[in-house]
Amino acid sequence: MGKRYYCDYCDRSFQDNMHNRKKHLNGVQHHRSKKAWFDNFRDAAAILAEEQTKKPCRKFIQTGQCVFGSSCRFSHMTKKDIDDLKRQIEAERQRKEDPDAAWKSPERNVDDWLSRREKRKAALDSGSILKEEEEEAATGSDVPPHFLSIPDLPVSLLPPPPGGWKNVPQAEWG
Ligand SMILES: [Zn+2]
Ligand SMILES: [Zn+2]
Asked: What is the pTM for the complete model shown?
């Protein structure tokens, strides 16, 4: 028993030799599977554009089946498929325009963080926060406490002291 060649696209295996491999890789079935696989990664807009240049496949509409499958030169898309595709395109477009939409969870919203920081700063500046609260606000800040206690860090890696740098520390760079 020799080695077996497994084709991921077609999800099938056969005895691995030059002849079988060549025959398989040039086969219609393999080309179809491969195209279908890569079609998964095309964006919806490209698929829609291509589908709209095709005439509907009569065979597919009448019987719900067509031997040509995804390589048919006529369109197998129903009205609903097209609508789904259009919705998908809309979603992709929004994702592109607002790439960090996916990151917008409460913990990861930078805008939120910045506006909270702004408010805190404004409150400090206007003196509406008392001294102790200021201290607390500063030490309860963004630097996790265990980072403040790592010994012998180079200056460039030191976290800012509570309340931020008073003035830029002098460092001998060598
Ligand atoms: Zn194959
Ligand atoms: Zn067809």
From this structure: 0.36
Residue 159 burial by Cβ neighbours in a 10 Å radius (0-12, 13-18, 19+): middle
C-alpha 28 – ligand 1 centre gap (Å): 9
Ligand nearest, relative to CA of residue 11? 1
Ligand nearest to the CA of 73: 2
Let me know if residue 170 belongs to a domain.
Answer: no
Which residues are in the CB-under-5-Å shell of ion ligand 2? 57, 60, 66, 68, 72, 74
Q: How far apart are CA 118 and CA 112, in angstroms?
A: 10
DSSP code at position 160: P
Q: What are 158-171's pLDDT values in tens digits?
A: 777 777 767 666 77
48-79: string of b/e by CB count within 10 Å (b at 16+)?
beebeeeeebeebeeeeebeeeeeeebbbbee
Residue 103 has pLDDT above 70, yes or no: no
79 occurs within a structural domain:
yes
Q: How far is the CA of 42 from the centre of ligand 1 (A)?
A: 20
Q: Examine the domain organization and report whether 69 and 31 are in the same domain.
A: no
Domain that holds residue 123: 99-142
